Amino acid sequence: MFTGIVEERGAVVAVEQLADAARVTIAGPLVTSDAKQGDSIAVNGVCLTVVDHGDGAFTADVMRETLVRSSLAGIAAGDAVNLERAAAVGQRFGGHIVQGHVDGTGELVSRAPSEHWDLVRFGLPAHLARYVVEKGSITVDGVSLTVVEVGPDWFTVSLIPETLRATTLGLREPGDRVNLEVDVIAKYVEKLAGPHLAAEEGDRR
């Protein structure tokens, strides 16, 4: 589990394309400072397992499902990526519950810089729109953010200077693809409440 508070902006060192997967090596001195084989590190919001590490970098395998569902299919050597180690028990919880299980991708539609923050609009896949609410939480490329406004196929967030400096969101431009993870609590509520709401609707008919 993660919190969506990016610890480090790392860089892709190498990408090895395999038959139905990819092996990526990523430089991140901070997140690898205490890394062990089998540890989890979120890369642009995708939970990956460390299979090797050394010299301030780690290697992880990315399976086909992850490549299909996330933007990791398009990463290349030299790309900047957001990195976060799995949350430790007892630490402050600065963001929200983030699983590192990407629900889909969106597209950066526009950004409007102001003196103290950027207002950024992202395209939102229709099947995820019902989980996104104004002032709720959403994860974009591994960054825990608060939704400012939401429409049928878009949402906006405000990015403070620290987020622009410390994460890849300061580098993103219109047309760029980003990973999205909606609040898992909303999905559980839907699953648990759905049958009861359907039954009540049937009783009223």
Describe the structure.
A hairpin with a 3-residue loop joins strand 1 (8-17) and strand 2 (21-27). The strands form 2 sheets. The protein has a 6-stranded antiparallel barrel with strand order 1-2-5-4-3-6. The chain has 3 helices and 12 strands, in the order E-E-E-E-E-H-E-E-E-E-E-E-H-E-H. Helix content is 16%, strand content 40%.
Question: Tags for this entry?
Answer:
205 residues; 6-stranded antiparallel barrel; 6-stranded antiparallel beta barrel; 3 helices; 12 strands; 40% strand
Average pLDDT number: 93
Characterize the largest beta sheet: strand count, sense, and whether it forms a barrel: 6 strands, antiparallel, barrel
Radius of gyration: 18 Å
Q: Specify the helix fraction band.
A: 10-25%
Beta strand %: 35-45%
Derived structural class: alpha+beta
**Tally of helical segments:** 3
Instruction: Report the count of strand segments.
Output: 12
Q: Which sequence of strands runs across the widest sheet?
A: 1-2-5-4-3-6
Stretches with pLDDT under 50, minimum 5 residues: none
Helix and strand sequence = EEEEEHEEEEEEHEH
Shape: globular
Distance between the termini: 43 Å
Could you provide a short overview of the structure?
The chain is α+β, with helices and mostly antiparallel strands.
Question: What is the topological layout?
Answer:
Layout: E1 8-17, E2 21-27, E3 40-43, E4 46-54, E5 57-63, H1 64-69, E6 80-85, E7 104-113, E8 118-123, E9 137-140, E10 143-150, E11 154-159, H2 161-166, E12 177-182, H3 184-204
Antiparallel strand pairs: 1-2, 1-6, 2-5, 3-4, 3-6, 4-5, 7-8, 7-12, 8-11, 9-10, 9-12, 10-11
